[in-house]
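Entry 14. Structure prediction run on the chain below.
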Amino acid sequence: MSLSPAAVVAGAYFPGPRSENETWVRGEFQAVLDQWFDWRKHLFADDPCLVGPADRLSPGRLERREILSRELAELCEALTAETPTYTPRYIGHMKAEVSLPALLGWLAAMLHNPNNTSREASKVGTVIEAEAIAMLATMVGYDPAKAEGHFTSGGTVANFEAVWRARYRLDHWLSLGLHIAEKTGEPLDVFASAHMGWDRFRALWAEHGLTDAVLRRCSAAVGVPADVWRRISRAAGRDYMGPVLLVPGNKHYSWSKAANLFGLGEESLWAVGLDADGRLDVDDLERLMRRAEAEGRPVLMAVGVAGTTETGEIDPIDALHDRLERWENERGLHVWRHVDAAYGGFLCAILGGPDETVLTPASVAALRAIGRADSVTIDPHKLGYVPYACGAFLTRDTARYAVSAFDAPYLDRPELGDGKWSSTLEGSRSAAGAAAVWLSGRTIGFGPDGMGALLAETVRARQAFEAALGEAVPEVRFLEPADANIVCFSLAAPGESLSSANRRTAALFERIHQSPEFSVSKTTLGADYAAVIARHVSGFGGVIDAPGMVLVRCVFMNPYWAAPECRAALFPPFIALVREGLGRDLEAA
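Output returned:
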C-alpha cells in the first residue's frame, strides 16, 4: 500500500512514536556536535588550551565531571515523568511532537548561541531570521519582499507587538489632529483624527509645516499621557476616555494582559459578539465601531482570530476586512486590523493544494484573507512543530513595522540599522527558533506538498475520530462546526438539562484524566458563547439551566495521526474508555 504524502512527511521528518528514526537522528546529532567541536578547535588554532592532556584526568576534574554526570542523569530520569506530548495518545492541548528539522536547527543554533538583538551579535542568526520570516510571510499571504517581522517567545508577546505598533500609528494621527485643533481653535474630532490615514496625515503635515519636535509635544505616547488627554478633552469639548480594543468573545487571554500592560484599562477591551458558530459577528463589530465613534473613542485595533484557543474556530477574516475597508473607502477612516493566527496560521499551508477541500469554503476564504491584515501573530511552536518557545510577529510592510519614532513620521523612515533591538519588545532574542523554522521551511516546506499535506491529515484524523466515537457512543454530542483539528464534545441524553450534562461531561473528563492511556483537556464556554450553547443544547432537546457549558476537548495535531495504523490502533481503546466512563456514570446515577 502506498503511503500518503502526509505519512511520508511524518515518517521522514519526525522521530517516530517508538523512536523509529533513532539511528539516523543519533548520527545527525553527532554530526552537529562534530562540526561544532571542529569549528572551535580550528578557528583560532594558535590560542592556548585551558586544559592540558594530563589535567583532564586530574582527581579534581574527574570528581566534578562525575558530579555533573550524576546530576544530569537525575535530571533526565526526572523528566521521564513529564507529560509525554510526543505521542498521539496526547490530545489534550496545543502541544505535540517536535519535527527533526526544527530540533536539529534549534540545536545547531543554540550551540553557537547567537543573540538576534543586532547584526553585530548575530551575523548569521539575523540573516536566518529574515529568511525564515519571509517564509512565514509567504505562507500567510504577505508579499515577502515587503513584509517585515521577527521571532518572539510566543503568541502573547507577538500580540503585544501588534498593540505597540497600532498605538504608535494612532498616536501619530491623533497628535497631529490635536496640534491643528490647538493651533486653529477648530473643534477636535477625535475619532476622525485618530483614523485619518497616512495620505491625509502627510497632506496636513505639509500644509501646516510641522516638525518632529512640534508633534512630540502633542503625543500621549511620548509626553505625559494625563496632560495630553486633558488637552484632547479641552480641544474636543468632551471628556476623552482613551482608545478601545475590539476583540472577539473567543479571544485569547493575552488581550486582557495587553489592555493592562499598555495602561488602557479593562474597560477598554470591548468584546465583539459571537455568532451561533462561535465566530466573530461582523455586524456586532460594526455596532461597536459606531459606538466608539459616538463616544469619541478611537479604535486602537480590530482583531480576528484564526484558530481560537478553546475550540479552533476560524473567524470570518475576509468579512472583517471587507467591512473595515468599506470604512476606509467611503469615509477615509483607517483602523488597524490584526489577525491572531497563533494556532491556525499554519493551516494556510494547505491552501492552493489538493487537500484544500478538507477545510470548509468559509475557512478557506478566511485564511486567504489573512494577507490583507496590517499584522499577524503566528506560533511555530504549535502547528509548526518547533521547540518552545517560538512565536512570530509579522506586518504587511516596513511602515507598519515601525515603532517609537516621530522622525519625519514615515515620510522618510529612518534606518533602524542592522539590528532590531529598537523595534522589538524583547531585548535579547535567541536565534534558535528562527533556525528551527528556517530548516523546517527548507526541508518540510510550508506549502501544500509539505506542511500543508501533514496538517490536512490532522483535520481528517479529527473527522475520523468524530465519526468513530459518534457511531459508538450516541450520547456524545460534538460541538459544531469544527474548523480545524480540534474537537469538543459533551455527554447528553435526549432532553437532558445542561447542568446534568455538565456534571456527566466533567465526570467523563476526570475518568479519562485519571487514566494513563490518554490525555485530553476540558473547557467551559461562558457567556460570550451564549449563542453557541443555545444551539448545542437545542441539538439534544435540552434545557439551559447553567451559566456555562462543560466540554471535553481533544486536539488532533500530532503528525502520527497521518498513519491509518495509528487511528486503527488508538481509536478503539479511547472509545472503550468513554464507554466505561459512561457506564460508571449511569451506575452512579
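The chain has 20 helices and eleven strands.
Filed with the rest of this week's runs.
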